[in-house]
Amino acid sequence: MPVPRALTIATSDSGGGAGIQADLKAFAAAGAHGSSVLVALTAQNTVGVTAIHELPPEFVRAQLDAVFDDIGVDAAKTGMLFSRTLIETVAAYLRNHRVPLVVEPDPAHRDRARERAGAVLDEAPAESFDAVVAPDGADLSGVAARKVILVGHDGSAWSTTLP
User: Alpha-carbon distance 93 to 144, whole Å?
Assistant: First the structure.
């Protein structure tokens, strides 16, 4: 049986506790081969984020091409995509490279998570969502996902199936 190939499209966490680093750990624990596409780099630790460097859209597309063209992708998830430009870049790419997709806005930035969740859901190819992970209170009207996983401010989570 082949090993499933999971792709994370998100931001790097120099502290190792979130972002792509956490996704790759979760993929490995689930028995999947994890690959990654970075959209931004952070200087962060357990105290906070001190700097963010957004990667150019051309470089993000080059990473996506490298992974899709050689390794392959059985499923993908997004984390914090950082900017509308990067959301649009990833959404446009995924329109032409359909895979099961989980959209997960970055819960560490709760003050901006609702706004980013809305932007991701507006821009990404909604018909390909298999699940959306969103902060509690996010506007999910019009979401074409099979399942929504809501995350409370205390870290609790629950899921619901959309009609």
Answer: 18
| Domains contained in the chain, CATH given | 5-161 (3.40.1190.20)
Give the percent of the chain with pLDDT over 70: 64
What pTM, to 2 d.p., does this model score? 0.72
Tokens found for residue 159: 């899921």
pLDDT range class, residue 19, cuts 50, 70, 90: confident
Contact call for residues 7 and 70 (beta carbons, < 8 A): no
Q: Where are the alpha helices (DSSP H) in 75-154?
A: 84-96, 110-123
Residue 77 near residue 7, CB atoms below 8 Å: yes
- How many C-beta atoms surround the C-beta of residue 152 within 10 A? 12
Q: Could you give the dihedral angle defined by the CA atoms of residues 34, 37, 43 and 49, in that order, rounded to the nearest 10 degrees?
A: -90
Six-digit token pair at 153?
């401010």
What SS3 state is found at 20? helix
Q: Which residue has the tokens 């690959």?
A: 35
User: Which residues, other chains included, contact 108 with Cβ-Cβ below 8 Å and sequence gap of 6+?
Assistant: 18, 80
Return left, alpha or beta for 19; rule: phi > 0 is left, psi -120 to 50 is alpha, else beta.
left
Q: Where are the alpha helices (DSSP H) in 10-56?
A: 19-29
